[in-house]
Amino acid sequence: MALTVIAAYDIPADSRRSRLAARLQRWGDRVQYSVFICRFEDHAELAKMLAEAETIIDPATDSLVIFRQCSTCWESHLSLGQEDIRPPTLYWAAL
Asked: Which domain holds residue 42?
């Protein structure tokens, strides 16, 4: 079962912030400076990302918030401006 989450962070230290952003980009797309939309195949993959994030952040000064999105919630999202966060349409070609 695929999962879609919104991950938002506030990390004052440049090095930790850069490391976390690089990890989040492996799982999703940046939609704002500190906000990513990530898609996971299952709960185990989400747990892996959270475990990696725990090794990066300093709980005394940093925060990472994950908002899980159900399919109904995700389909009813609204966006204004130039950001288009719909999943890409995939096409197959036989050569």
From this structure: 3-75
